[in-house]
Amino acid sequence: MLLPQDRYLEAGLHIGTRFKTIDMKPFIFKKRDDGLYILDLRKIDERIRIAAKILGKYKPGDVMVVASRLYSANAAGKFANFTGVDIIKGRFIPGTMTNVKLKVFKEPKIMLVCDPKGEAEAIMEAAKMGIPIIALCDTDNYTAFVDLVVPTNNKGRKALAMVFYLLTRELMMSQGKITSYDQFDQRPEYFERFEDEKSEEMAKEAEAAEAKPSETDLLPEEKKGQEEKGGKENAEEKKEE
Questions:
Q1: Do β-strands 63-67 and 28-31 pair in parallel, antiparallel, or remain unpaired?
Q2: Which residues have C-beta within 8 Å of that of residue 105, sequence separation ≥ 6?
Q3: Cβ(75)–Cβ(191) below 8 Å
Q4: Are 83 and 171 in contact (CB under 8 A)?
């Protein structure tokens, strides 16, 4: 794995919501007693790897990230600074990829969205223009028009910071900016941190309003199940009620 399992657990990448869509069923490990759906760590790791490899095949200027929420925009902005990819933060303006008369008109060759619900307009436009779409998807997301699903907690501050930390590290490797992980001297906490007090205050307000349940560790038997070879079959059995 790109990181030890405990690092993923600490960041809460596996913590889903209390809702499950049919689209995300293949990526769900189980449902907890408290109603939370838990994502499969192995599939999270696998899809982050694949996403980074795909993005690495494009020139940075041909890659566009859409991040409408505060946490995703902060982490994705740092990803863009390191890798040189384009980014749209906040509200996506309709017509950005379809109306050549707009000043903000863009022609990316691949797009990464951080939340299919909040960035539905961007997905529709990219699909219309035949642009491949990679999406960070939580358990409650639908994945229509998405070419590559990266299952993850796409709402949590720490989780998003960890995802973009890993994507940055992997993409910089493929770009030749670093030749080993040791040369990447940033930590996931950097992708979590806001650079100004106003943004930090807004982040705290958002965190209070949107925070997921505090459990970020699997129970011992759940952790063991994630580690077992052939855990996919076990996950399928456990997650069904």
A1: unpaired
A2: 95, 96, 97, 99
A3: yes
A4: yes
How much is the pTM? 0.84
Rounded distance between C-alpha atoms, residue 54 and residue 128, angstroms: 20
Q: Are 110 and 81 in contact (CB under 8 A)?
A: no
Kindly tell me if the per-residue pLDDT of 197 is higher than 70: no
Secondary element (H or E) of residue 30: strand 28-31
What is the arithmetic mean of pLDDT over 115-122? 96
First-last CA distance in the chain = 30
On whether the CB atoms of residues 105 and 99 are closer than 8 A, the answer is: yes
Contact by Cβ (8 Å): 14, 154: no
Given CATH 1.10.1740.10, say whether it is the number of domain 8-210.
Answer: no
Domain positions in the chain are 8-210
CA-CA distance, 39 to 174, in Å (whole number)? Answer: 27
Query: What per-residue confidence (pLDDT) applies to 200?
Result: 64
Nearest to 72 by CA among 116, 115, 103, 109: 115
The 3-state secondary structure of 107-155, one letter per residue: CCCEEEECCCCCCHHHHHHHHHCCCCEEEEECCCCCCCCCCEEEECCCC
Q: Pairing between strand 133-137 and 86-89?
A: unpaired
Q: Token digits for 77? A: 């902005």
Among candidate residues 74, 224, 92, the one with its CA nearest the CA of residue 163: 74
Q: Which backbone phi and psi does 36 adopt, to 5 degrees? A: -75, 135
CB atoms within 10 A of CB 181: 11
